[in-house]
Amino acid sequence: MVLQKRLDYGFDGYQVPPIPQATRSDRRRCSFKRKVADNQMCAFDLLATVAGKLLLEEESSPSSSDRLTEKELSPTLQVSIKKEQQDEDKILRVEPCGGLESMITSDCSVNVAKSKFQVGSFENKVELASSGYQESFDCTVVDKFKKKMNIELQNTGNISNSAKVDICSLDDLTLRDRKHPALVSVESSMTLPLGTDHFSCGSFPAIREDVKLVIRDDDENSSGCTHPSSTTTKSYRAPSCVGNRRLRNGFASKYWKVTPKLKREEKHFNADSEVKPVYHNRKFCYKYQRSQRDYPIKKRKLYYDHSSVPNPDRGISCKGITSFPGKKFSCDASASSATMCGGLFPSLPFLLMGFCIFSRGLVLVLSLGSSPNLIILTPHAASGKPVCLPGQYGTFQSEDSHVKLRIKSFKVPELFIEIPESATVGSLKRTVMEAVTKILGGGLRVGVLLQGKKLRDDNKTLLQTGISDDNKLDALGFSLEPSGSLAPPLLHHEDSPSPLTCDSPQPLTRCWSYRYSPTPIAVLDPPSLNLESFVESDHDSAPSPPDMSIDKNLTDSRALVVVPAMNVGASAVVPARKSKRSEAAQRRIRRPFSVSEVEALVQAVEKLGTGRWRDVKLRAFDNAKHRTYVDLKDKWKTLVHTARISPQQRRGEPVPQELLDRVLNAHAHWAKQQAKPETCRFL
DNA sequence: TTTAGGG
DNA sequence: CCCTAAA
Q: Is the pTM of this model over 0.70?
């Protein structure tokens, strides 16, 4: 999908010519897809694939193959990337580094000529030199690291336009964060001083959850190792170790296909800026030739002056924050390894596995724990935000603009089973089976949900709906619905159709949200439930223990519930509670406050008062995702009530009288405070 | 989104 | 806990 994104930028997916021997036309036709189990697909694979393709294409290009001399190719830079799956006959040879001259220019793009970058040991010099065009960037290693490597991208014409990527050693890293035994931290500081203002990077909201997943993995895998060589967990392999098996090279992109869109832009440029498209090395590899004289200036403008040129390719933005004319674009390195991504990877070190600079952005392949991630710093326009593709992502874009999806689970219609206590387990099973059969009997339909919203228009293309948008992948969900829905025995009409909230193929994805208005009956939108969410809901005990789970709570278990529409007559299957609400509006399970929670609540209210429930939430229940500020307010209400009634009338887990006294005191106190706002509000 | 209250 | 009017 990420690559699909690239489509917009002129990167036409990834296609790998099957075999070098194939004729060109054959190659074009039967370029094979590297079939990889979805969960094995990783960003690096994608890039490697691309690299493979690029290389192969280059090899077959007389003009460029000239440069592929043994001399120039450092042996260590020759890499065989083999699918870990053993795709025997399809071993890609990727030789991305040594002296290959590549140019990936499209309209206004970074032009990278040389790339020597061996991530495997981090001993090579990184050098991305200009291919001779003034407008291109130089990327050179400033420090020969060991300790620190500095890749500097700079515009040869103007030093101030530079991008820096600092890579510090593990040692440096562990000093900062011992928790993550990553090997190398990439402190990316992209600095494009363009003027006065300063933009720093924030976060990538769109992919935050994905990232969380990664972080979790990190923690799990974290072994405390602080030295690369000792860090040999599955997820963290020292670069040098990796080298043998699967050397992960940085590579410069080569020739990118011209996409239709770009072709159009091409024309545009032709007219506008004396840019003459020149197909270089096959028609889908191209670059522009510009007249030298006005190039440098114009070029920079194209790069950075977003407002002056109506072209999507302007400037590199970091996570959506872009450089604007006269402003400085910067991702400060001081923050952490995550700098580049700001809040995305807070202080999470990552290993730079490769990078790729191409016309429309900078791609970094980073290892964030167990799987490589693809970070794309895109030019401003198109999506604005960098894309992160977790390695284990189940969806990706393949050639031919196909969207590949792996559906791990379906939401299934809710079932409601009513069965006497005296019934046997066997009869329970049968009853459930009956209910299920009832539904299946009528046939099933599949619903597609995007960001919680049901996609009802069957005629829209994935592209139109945005499903092919990488940002939305994790918001994609499917549901099973009784197909009899068109003329289903409607039992209740009071409900209105409701959006399903969740569920992507990923188990840990957030599920529905709490408060929904009554929603329509389940006929068309049968209540669905995520089977995978039958996770033991966490017993939130203490209010504060860090809750690392991704809202596990939200996936409260919802036992079997009914599918009203389907229960025609089946005695065992009856409509649930008038099926008042459907899927999303399912009433949350009851979770009585524990004494410790009450304690925390009381303490917070004593401190903050009774009108600041949000603050109370943040202060004392920030980690209890299932406790909303409304819940806290409600609880306080009941606490006050409880405190006022006699102990005999109280129900549930008894709250210590001491706490109830404090409740009354605090309540009285804050009531008084409200009466006289002038007074200082401290206890 | 929060707050404040009734259900 | 839910639902909402108001802010």
A: no
